Amino acid sequence: MSVVIIGAGVVGLAAAYELGKRGHKVVLLEKDTYGQGPSHGNAALVTGVLSFPVPAPGSVGVAAKSLLKSGQAITLVPQFSPAYAAFLLRMALATRKHPFAVGTMAQDILTVKVLETFDEYAKDGLVFESHERGSMHVFNNQAEFEAGMSVFEPFADIRSRVVGLETAEAVHEVDPALAAGISYGYYAKTDRQVEPESLMKALVAAIKKQGGELVEHAEVLDFVAKNGKVSAVVTTAGVYEAEQVVIAAGVGSRKLAGMLGFSLPQYSGGGYSVDVHYADYEAGPHTSVLTSASHIAVTPLDWGLRASSGMIIGQRYPEVKPRLIAKLLSDLKATYPGVPLDDVEPGWAGLRPMSADGVPVIGLVPGLSNAYLATGHAMLGLTYAPATAKVLAESMEAERPLAAYELLSPSRFKLRK
Ligand SMILES: Cc1cc2nc3c(=O)[nH]c(=O)nc-3n(C[C@H](O)[C@H](O)[C@H](O)COP(=O)(O)OP(=O)(O)OC[C@H]3O[C@@H](n4cnc5c(N)ncnc54)[C@H](O)[C@@H]3O)c2cc1C
Questions:
Q1: Which protein residue has the closest C-alpha to ligand 1 atom 18?
Q2: pLDDT-derived band at 57, boundaries 50, 70, 90
Q3: What is the pLDDT of residues 110-166, one digit of tens each?
Q4: What is the whole-number distance in angstroms between the Cα of residue 38 and the centre of ligand 1?
Q5: Ligand 1 centroid – CA 36 distance (Å)
Q6: CA of 380 to the centre of ligand 1 (A)
Q7: Global pTM?
Q8: Which ligand 1 atom lies nearest to the CA of residue 44?
């Protein structure tokens, strides 16, 4: 089949690669140049362990507090539109115990495929920066640690994938460079670090080798659709006929889905990062670390580390705020006192695509028989991109919704309307 994919972020690229590998003809349309959105400067963590969506029990209170007080894990940007209000309401409902459990099970469909899909890339000969250094959530005191571990309670299988660390010695055995006061954590040994730019570069080269076409500076403006089928995609660079269409346009997906008559409950979750270069590996993180107190993620890479933070729901444009970057560096120093901060890149910011229930949205656009969505990956788009591509390709080849992937399907929003 011939497939037009909209959006050359990590998800669109992974989809193009998978479909090309299966012998399908692929055209990838990108309004800018590939990989410039959140796919570029993300925290570079690939987890094959954790499956918790962002709207978790308790997160509504945290988000609500952000309207009054800065420094919260989740910040809400007010927007005055009924669609945004409905989205926030859905997000609030998703934090209840049962929907959170369903969301976690849905994400786990992807999580269990993560390591094998990245291994497959390596076997295919894709060359990109990857490390197997695990990840650790760290806590400063027992109360925070117990609150962190309580999330696992209903999920024995996910709990069995991490090791609880209840002493400072155990934490520092995993990462000796961490600040002395950090005394609790849980460790996911099989988690990885994947430098996203190197991965996307490898995917683009492989897609071209397969005969796929990447068309940059081609913004999708409209669709030609009739009788429940899209026949062409209208762009600033011309009209592309399509047998099958995939919308993998990150935060741009809501607008595109709207053109096809589907109201996708998805807004942005802004975040930011900063790269710190240094030569002495021992001074910095030995694993990827997520801190409970300051809400930062730190990942060791070949040239030093990337630190990131922020979950700014409803942010319209990515914005690098010097105040937030300064705070991020100060939190980094408090976490890794030995890291030298004399070679720091300018900050970066990006908008994650956040579905209302925090779970990726993969499958047929309701009401259409040949247009698919692959978006809503929130904090885990790099992690889930290759697994998403598998789910998508299997669904497209089956030419019908697959029961195994129902929890990921866009129609879950339609049904609960
Ligand atoms: C600070 C931060 C840290 C993160 N850390 C991690 C992490 O450690 N691990 C992890 O797994 N994930 C992480 N993420 C999340 C991850 O980066 C995203 O989920 C992922 O990049 C989303 O990829 P995407 O391809 O769906 O979207 P995007 O990267 O946004 O790509 C979509 C593309 O579509 C294009 N587009 C949009 N509209 C149109 C149109 N009309 N026509 C043509 N093209 C269009 C855009 O230009 C863009 O290139 C992080 C994100 C942030 C911001």
A1: 381
A2: confident
A3: 999 999 999 999 999 999 999 999 999 999 999 999 999 999 999 999 999 999 999
A4: 4
A5: 8
A6: 10
A7: 0.97
A8: 8
- Give yes or no for residue 386 having a pLDDT over 60: yes
Q: 69 C-alpha vs ligand 1 centroid, how far in Å? A: 28
Atom of ligand 1 nearest to the CA of 374: 26
Average pLDDT over residues 192-198: 98
In the chain, the domains with their CATH numbers are 2-415 (3.50.50.60)
Average pLDDT of the residues in 44-58 = 90
| Contact in structure between 276 and 307 (CB atoms under 8 Å) | yes
Question: Which pair of structure tokens corresponds to residue 272?
Answer: 């930011």
Q: What percent of the chain lies above the pLDDT cut of 70?
A: 96
CB 109 within 8 A of CB 408: yes
| CA dihedral for 387, 388, 391, 397, sign (positive or negative) | negative
Ligand 1 atom having least distance to the Cα of 350:
53
Q: Name the pLDDT band for 54 (thresholds 50, 70, 90).
A: confident
Pocket of ligand 1 (CB under 6 A): 6-12, 29-32, 36-39, 42-45, 219-220, 248-250, 252, 256, 271-273, 308, 350, 352-353, 375, 377-383
